[in-house]
Amino acid sequence: MKRIGISILLICLAISTQAQDKQWTLSACVQHALDNNISIKQSELDLKVTEADKLSATGNFLPSLNASASLSENTGLSFNPVTNNAQTTTFLSATGNVNVGYTLFDGLRNVRQLQRAKLSKLSAEYRLDKMKDDIALFVANAYLTVLNNKANLASAKSQNLVTIEQIERTNALVDAGTLPRGDLLEIEATNASELQNIAILENAVTISLISLAQLLLIEDYQSFDIVDEGYDIVLNEISEKPVSEIITAAKENRSEVKIAEQNVAIAEKDLQIAQGGFLPTLSAFFGYNTRYTNATSFAQIPDPDNPTSIQPIGVVQETGQTVVGEFPNTVAREVGALPFSEQIYLNDGISYGLQLNIPIFNGFAVKSNVMRSKVNVERTKYQLEQAKLDLESNVYQAYVDAKGSLKAYEAAEKALESQELAYQYAKDRYDVGLTNAFDFSQSKVRFDNATISLNQAKYDYIFKLKVLELYFGIEPTDLKF
Questions:
Q1: What whole-number distance in Å separates Cα of residue 430 and Cα of residue 412?
Q2: Residue 409 and residue 233 in contact, taking contact as beta carbons nearer than 8 Å
Q3: Are residues 155 and 91 in contact, defined by beta-carbon separation less than 8 angstroms?
Q4: Same domain assignment for residues 29 and 121
Q5: Same-domain check for residues 40 and 120
Q6: Are residues 384 and 442 in the same domain?
Q7: What is the pTM assigned to this prediction?
Q8: Cytoplasm as a keyword (predicted)?
């Protein structure tokens, strides 16, 4: 029996541990979202694209190297690629080329393309940071919504236990003839209303958990749950700072302004690249080529039967005597193709030089590009100013919201204290028969509503503080809860 008891205890502990493992803390939810959110992954892909652009821009400083080769068989009348003579035959030919090119000067466009690629990468990093901030806020809001719904449900269940106790007590007093039966019916009606509200709150908890799970890309909705860490209102030094200090920190740390600043820098770099089209380009090149064919050719060789011949070459003017000379007598003979290695060596050639391209007139293409780039620079500057104004407005709004939420929370606390005293007073009077069940039920409803209002004000204030912390420059994973 002792072994069985130990086994049962170990199984219960294992089940309890598994259940705890399935409960998510807020920090775990935020980290999971940062690691798995689709929007963040897309932003990371955008960052990889900018890295590829940077690699391409870096490659513009390196020479280009290309090699080509061709192999063909010709039948009929064709030109021999070695002798360049027309032949009517069938032969195999091959050619090979190696070309090297290097841009010496292109109006500094390659330099500015690399600078632009670096700016684009930095801008993508800022966009990724902003996406992480937004996702962290979405997760925090969804998490606090679950906590709010759970707190409301726990409060409703707790109050319903009081109602059940009142039903039992009232039923006993009605049976004893101390209270009228109408009081019992009123309490039972209150219980039915509370049970209906509990069902609604349970549904709200389930829906908010599913929403959070979907935000985290978790498919197991049934076992997904969060840890109710009982967040309390704590003193936050950021909320005590002047709004001007928070706005200054936001302008220095927030990605919205940094993205707009990078867009201005990119637009200015695009203008410089467009202006480079007015300048000449200078490039150097080097090429090597060779060829081979297995075609036969005709060569002039001495005639073995008649190696020389006597031919007149002139006349002596004074005597009229004919002057003759001896010349080699040659005949055409078909010869086979030289070996492959020998032809590759004998038939090769190189070319090298410089190429200068001076733009004179291109249909105003460069000029129009420069004009568009200037307009885009002005547009991004306006967007930067607007981003600063929007950020200042958003920070100020968040600051006012946080202050207002704190006041709402403090007012809800006082309201709950008052309603709790009123409810306790009504309960005491009802227990001794000095008030009826309807008045007691109304006092209890007001107390329940005050509890729900306090929960909502509490988590709303916590969320508003998180918004301020992000604006102040705190990393999403370092948010204080």
A1: 26
A2: yes
A3: no
A4: yes
A5: yes
A6: yes
A7: 0.74
A8: no
